[in-house]
Design brief:
about 240 residues, mainly alpha, 8 helices, disordered N terminus
Length: about 240
């Protein structure tokens, strides 16, 4: 996160820099939640997150946090729709019930020790536990600092909190602030760039933004055009196309 008053890099630059670093697709709450105002406005403009979507894993308070946080990490702007408009919170929610969320993609047996990133995931907490504990810690911190939950803060305050988390502040008891922030940011980027079949990128806006053609069957008609932008719009696994 940049400081609130620093110029933010364009989403186009942000996505192009991170596209090569993450996969395009990453492998129980009850009741209908009330959205944060910004997230609700975004959801009303697109098929990304329906106001009537009932999360599979997150409870109401956690879902409100996720909507607000994703809206700040990739907001809607002149470059195109943001994370909430594109269904990224739905993508993350679905992943919590998938093998990824339950730690099924990693070796999850002790000993659990601190190690360099090259040695892989080292925490005893699976992603769904990191989210549950992390969101609770962040909301408790916000209540102490601002007398409100994260989702109820102003955008500037939310940016301040996210920036602090990235710097591993404040100190939490079970899950570190940076560990939680890094997972949230990584999953937000994954959902934004994923195939719509996984929940995010519902209008293929991110693929169109970066010039990614998607799941086309072949490119034999384009093999003789090196270093030229592919002229056709993206297409998803389920044959969804841009408007």
């Amino acid at each position: 996160m940049s400081k609130p008053h620093e110029a933010m890099p364009s989403r186009r630059q942000f996505l192009k820099k991170t596209l090569t670093l993450i996969p395009l697709a990453a492998a129980t709450g009850s009741g209908v939640v009330s959205f944060a105002s910004a997230a609700q406005t975004a959801s009303e403009k697109s098929p990304g997150v329906s106001q009537h979507y009932v999360p599979l894993y997150f409870n109401n308070e956690e879902w409100a946090f996720l909507l607000a946080a994703c809206e700040r990490l990739i907001p809607s702007d002149a470059n195109g729709p943001g994370a909430v408009e594109q269904g990224v919170p739905v993508f993350i929610d679905k992943q919590m019930e998938a093998p990824f969320g339950r730690g099924g993609l990693w070796y999850m047996h002790p000993p659990f020790v601190s190690a360099v990133p090259e040695l892989g995931y080292q925490s005893k907490l699976v992603p769904r536990e990191v989210y549950r504990l992390g969101i609770s810690e962040v909301n408790n911190y916000c209540r102490k600092q601002f007398k409100q939950r994260f989702a109820e803060l102003s955008p500037d305050q939310q940016d301040q909190v996210l920036s602090n988390l990235e710097k591993d502040k404040p100190s939490f008891d079970i899950v570190s602030a940076k560990m939680f922030f890094d997972l949230l940011l990584q999953n937000t980027k994954e959902g934004y760039l994923a195939d719509p079949i996984h929940g995010g990128n519902q209008t293929l806006a991110s693929w169109q933004l970066i010039g990614f053609p998607g799941a086309r069957a072949d490119y034999t008609d384009w093999v003789d055009h090196p270093n030229e932008p592919y002229p056709q719009g993206p297409i998803s696994i389920s044959s969804k196309r841009t408007a």
